[in-house]
Design a protein that fits this description.
Length: 260
């Protein structure tokens, strides 16, 4: 299914993004790696090429709108199309809202929401011309159940879910699919910024997902034309229960979900 497909991945230098790159490359895809860390991108490209895959990379800053459009134009000029865009880049900080620095608030919205939206828009015109494509937005279960110390992060992911749902309906008749992925906590370098104290990792470590597992689930969702996936399944069930009975859910599970 992915043989010779052009797969563009933001946030590809580590975590789920890098695992997705390796998996897609192993399936015969040409992966295009986008992130801010050139050294990590170059190393990942080297590893993929050694393993027999095809990878290219570009320095990419989601907070620079002009740069986003410029890089996307370069990718399309070189490869002539983009078959799949995976918006995987994200930033978060687990902290009480009343104590959070305004710069961090702005950064989370700039990367998680505005950057994702502008990147999608930059790619979309090409997909509409070719009359096919798939956009995968990595959101979070925090966008459904937002808990204390993740108030702003959850708000950004809630925005991603809403954006994805509306865009899906807007482009459905143009041959473009939109998939939203809502994982629970993942053991990745993301946590170094989000929770430098290590407190959350210590408490929630046993519930954390493996980045490789999440990447495999994302690829399966694309293959099976899923609309949305929640990971892991039991947290997904909790999210559905929360949507049906939020007050009851908070009373029963409040202490568990507020581990931060």
């Amino acid at each position: 299914m992915f043989q010779n497909k052009i797969i563009v991945i933001t946030g590809a230098s580590s975590g789920v993004g890098s695992e997705l790159a390796r998996l897609f490359a192993s399936k015969g895809a040409q992966v295009v790696l986008l992130a801010r860390n050139v050294e990590k991108l170059a190393e990942l490209q080297r590893q993929i090429n050694i393993e027999g895959g095809l990878a290219d990379y570009y320095l990419f800053d989601l907070t620079d709108i002009d740069s986003i459009h410029l890089i996307v134009k370069k990718i399309i000029s070189r490869f002539h199309r983009i078959d799949v865009l995976i918006n995987c880049a994200g930033v978060g900080k687990f902290e009480l809202f009343s104590e959070m620095d305004s710069g961090m608030i702005d950064q989370m919205f700039a990367v998680n929401v505005q950057g994702l939206i502008h990147c999608t828009q930059a790619v979309l015109s090409s997909m509409m011309q070719q009359k096919h494509g798939c956009v995968v937005n990595i959101a979070s279960l925090a966008g459904i159940i937002t808990t204390s110390k993740s108030v702003v992060y959850g708000a950004t992911k809630h925005a991603v879910i809403g954006f994805s749902n509306g865009l899906r309906m807007e482009v459905a008749k143009k041959g473009i699919r939109v998939i939203v992925v809502n994982p629970g906590p993942i053991r990745t370098p993301f946590l170094k910024l989000a929770d430098p104290s290590g407190h959350y990792l210590e408490k929630a470590g046993r519930f954390m997902l493996d980045a490789r597992t999440v990447a495999e689930k994302v690829i399966r969702a694309i293959e099976r034309n899923k609309r949305e996936i929640n990971l892991p399944w039991y947290m997904g069930m909790g999210a559905k229960l929360y949507q049906l009975m939020p007050g009851v859910f908070e009373k029963i599970f409040g202490r568990i979900i507020n581990m931060k």
